[in-house]
Batch of 2 targets.
Target 1
Amino acid sequence: MLGTTLIILAVFLAVFAVIAIVDIVTAKKRKEVYRVKSSATAYLMLLPAIILAFLFILLPILYSLGYAFTDYYLLKPNDIKFIDIQNFKQFFAELGERGTLYHAIKNTVIFVVGVVPLQIGLALGLAIFVNRPGKGAKIFKVCFFAPVVISLSVTSYLWLQILSPSETGLLNSILGVFGAEPRDWLRDPNSAMICIIILSAWQGCGYQMLIFLSGLSNIRKELYEAASLDGASAWKKFTTVTWPGLRSTFVYIIITVFIGACRILTQPMLMTGYQDHTVTLSYYMYTQGYTYRWVGYSSAVAFLMTIFIGGVTFLQRHLLREKK
Amino acid sequence: MDKNLIKDLPNFKLNKKPASHTVKEVIYHIVGIILSLIFLFPIIYMIATSTKSESAYAASAGSISMFLPDFTNLGTALDNYKSVFTNYGIWRYALNSFLYAGIVIVLNVLINGLAGYVMAKLVFPGKRLLSFMIIFLIVVPVETSIIPLYSIVKVMLGLKQTASVIGIILPASISIFNIFLFMQFFQGVPKEYEEAARIDGANTMGVFFKVILPLSKPIIATVAVFCFIGVWNDYLWPSMILPAPGEGEWPLYPIQSALTTIQSIEGITTGEIMASLIVTSIPIFVIYVAAQKYIVQGFGTAGLKM
């Protein structure tokens, strides 16, 4: 592993040197000269950033690409064999057998399809609701934003108590007043993902609300006044003024929320553990790589995930821009 | 007098239909209060429960007092907090988190600030490649590389036990996006400041530390605030690389990872769990209130991330 790293480092430095020399030559042609001392200082100041970025950003990306084609087992770092596309074959084989991977993909799709519209819809609705002058609106804004301050792990543990299967759990005891039997919300395959969707949207939507608000504040007031003069209804104003004005904000939000949703991991991990009815793709990837130590296979899953997320992001941006 | 008249004019216009206007206002606020309560109920429940003993909690089940603190025993309202601190030692994990966050903030500002300054102001061969790499690495999704990162930190650097704290600090100290932020900021600093310092005989490093850094307090604050939130709220990565707390030794876990440890302690009550969750959330809450300005600034730049 160290050997590969040194090779990558050598390639990296070689490419760098070539580009630097090209820079120096082209500068000479234009009769400009790089000052040696100032260049040296520049590199000295850049050195810590370059070392850390190489080790902790560039190298993991390159390795996750490379490992995907190997049988790397974490406890045998000196025995890594290139195994072609075996990992990807295994991926699709497991998908076909409807194993844990099948559930992981299914649950991730359910989560994304549920949480993206819910969270963005909530955020947009709340943003429009508090987008007016006055003290009340300001206080409401703070209230809607409050859950964002709570971290994902605290959110998970808090909702674990709310959804507790015992009679004294918050949800069960409230429903108990109406005579309902206590239920184990997170162990029931029918309700577990729905609960996770709701609590995730609750925690996250305040953040997007603020971004929508800054988008709303960029819409010129005259447009609304003009629409009012034309006798437009509230709905008409929304479709003709607010919506077009929010287009670029909306593109940004839908992409970030989508990527975040695809990566969901903390909530199922802390709330249910590795169960078929709540496991997600990130959780599967993490378990394969960290718990079972199959770094090679886990990297292949990560590889496919990255391609998928990148592809969908590209598509979303393309489609949403075109409609303009 | 005249001034007041003009000032009142728009109000007067609005109040043409005073009755329906007030009704609308009242409805707006009622809807707002209901929505706020829907949003806040888990937090209210968390705070209320943290003041209750297990029996008081069970007694409140199914009634409105689930959302109210235990008024009958105000003297014992803070017992759960005391127990979380003394019996479960949450302050040690909090101290760890503060320590990690503090070191990360200093390193992050220094390392990325230096890099941003060089990229913004100095001329040197190879700069084009580095600018290209900055743009490329911001766009490329790095989230899925946590397992390779783990293998690099654990296997290649061979970090064991105490040394794995380095694995918390160093990866968090580099942020391409922060380099980009600093770069943008420094490009806006007029040349005259540096030239004046250079005439006084300062070298590049001197200029950076004595002239540029003092000028860049707003951007440093923004970076520091987001660093703190990032380190404080990180759960997965520390849980992966740090050893779980053992008996009788000082734990290495930061507070979020420690929540899992605390949850699994036998005999912990619901009230104590809630108290530990609140203690974990308070510093972030304080940061959000105190550093609002910088967080909003960060939102403004968040759009650049695309």
Note: Chain B has two domains: 18-84, 88-265.
Target 2
Amino acid sequence: MSCPDCKSAAARRDLVKSARMVTIGNPNTGKTTLINALAGSDLKVGNWPGTTVERLEATLRLPGKELLLVDLPGTYSLSPTTPEEALAARELLANPPDVVVNVVDAGNLERNLHLTLELAELGLPVVLAMNLMDEAAAKGYTLDPAALEKELGVPVIPLVASRGAGIEKLLGSLDQARVPALQVRYPGALESAVRELASRLEHPARRWIALALLAGEEVPLELDPAVQEFARSRRAELERAGIDPYLEIENARYTRAHELAQRVLVGSEPRLTLTDRVDRWVLHPLLGGPIFLLGMLLAFRFTFLFSTPWVDFIGGLQEVLAGWIRALPLPPLAVSFLADGLIGGVGTVISFAPVLFFLYLALAFLETSGFLARAAFIADRMMLLAGLPGRAFIPLILGFGCNVPAVYATRVLTGRLDRLRVAMAVPFMSCSARLPVFVLLAAVFFPEQASLVVFGLYLLGMMVGLLTAWLIGRAAGAAPSSGLMELPPYRLPAARVVLKQAWARTRSFLTGAGGFITLAVVVIWALLNLPPGTDMTHSYYVLLSSALKPLFAPLGVDDWRLLGALIPGFVAKEVVAGTLALSYLGAEPSAALGLLQGLGQIIAGFWSSVLATLGAVPALFGLPQLVPPAADEPTALQLALASAITPAAALAYMVYVLLYTPCVATLAAIRHEFGRGWALIAVVYELIVAWLLAWGAYRLALIWLGA
Amino acid sequence: MRRLADLPEDTPARIRALKTPPLLRRRLLALGVRPGAEVRVVRRAPLGDPMEIAVGDTLIAIRHAEAAGVELEE
């Protein structure tokens, strides 16, 4: 039998079985698309240990060998400016791979080759994947990859990864990976200092380490203190001679990268690119603002319109399961625990999965398409008022839908402090679960100005949120966040990677935050149903609600039923209105379900969710419903509420519901992303802020409305 | 002293020096904004700030306050 691979197998023998290969490149070089093409369905998405930085990994099975492929975070240079970039340098130094695939943008060689020259100084075997050849051609560039191959002494493979072009050739060239022959020469005194310092180091990356030390960089390695001391003295010497090592090094690298790029670029007839044409509209002085708002609206509606039917389906599923449990011959307390506590808790967790999944799809599309950077560019001036970068706009606006995905959306920001500041502001954005309470109370107490009151509450939440972000920034004493970022070319994301990433991130929520949420639901269940054998009016719930009275007396709210509704509101804000109905009007009996009846309901629910998802497509482009529908006749609940408190107290109650504690799922998200301490701070801070502002609203309303 | 912050649109200029805080300088250098490079202002954002600049083949958003530290050759 003929074997086409046998001939090259001998040449590949120098690669050990299961060798490690990493991909590294500047952001926006189509690296993810390339990995998708390389890895196929084998792609695994996870996190770098101890971080929230995403890590892509795959095992490539090639004839005669296995390759473990690990993707390093996109980085412009190995002198990091963000934690993500620091990770790339640390990994290369601590865990030198067998092969480095350096992905470069063929249409932006000079900046991309800067990183290649750093890799040469690291002494690692490199293959250059010259991606996006199609875009370079569209720009009017004629390139000569062979010239670069000759200069660098490593395989240079032209690619269009989105179409899979060049992938085979890239795989075939891996065993010809070499340490680039080309080294940057630094000006006189600097070069001799580099050599002298490098000769005192043992590491294969000694030249890069020497340069980093002279530039005053942190090197993520254990180094001999004597060497470090020597580096410091040489650095001081250079500075005394009027040389700025960092700048000189960067300059020399760029100059060399420029020369290289010039040699590869054999022809250039500049043409208007797709990006130029699209940006003319998207960043237009007058149309840019409206297009930005429309895009945000579309992302918002995509997330919530497509997920709502599935959230409803999960709710229906919960009811069916609870119905089945009620049909079991168990003591009432056990039935209640299983049906309401456990299934309620797990159901709450799972009901967030569709929202997060569609959010992550929307975010990945915005990010990879290049639209996110434009949105940030347009919104930057507004966000600067709160000392935030433009990208902060995205999580904040998502917060109006649901705070949980909004907390995770803070990942679009770079830098932990900015992420944290926005995450602490997010819970003040009035999510859709709070609207029913506002509509209910506003219709009872402010029938003429209901819309205005609701709108005012949204505005108040936003202002408190931005102020919070600003305050944390001030308290941390950090320099104002930077607006500096690349505006990458417009591109279509690789569907399979986006789907896999969205699923991996959703799964990470389910496992990382699920237990905490379920536990909280069970605790609330216990409050409502214990001690055993009592009805609700004698439960711990009522005891606790009544104990809250003195605390809320200054706000004019002294009805235990209103105060009690705040407690389950901690689990999910949508239950506040439901609990009010329950405590004012009494419970509706919930029925037991037969097996077949339940199955019928599940199937019907699934089908109607499919239909509703499809039906959401036209609604995506429809106008949003800004005014809540007005109730015709006052309901029994509204009449009961009207006699319970005064309008001023109702306003205070609404302000309190708007601002008090993030719901448990949001807290779980904050804890998952930023740790337990910050989740705790969020609760305490928001309880205090809510009380103070509700008190303020009450006093103002008393003056304005009369006692 | 000519500064990037004041450069009119579509008027190419050459960068002379980066008089910015260290972290910003590093970020600028990482993106290819370096002394000797040619820079052009593509447009300003609808609200007047930030602005979009082109350095080589890279398009970059930069705030007015940040661009004030980028000095240009006369």
Note: Residues 20 and 26 of chain B are 9 Å apart (CA to CA).
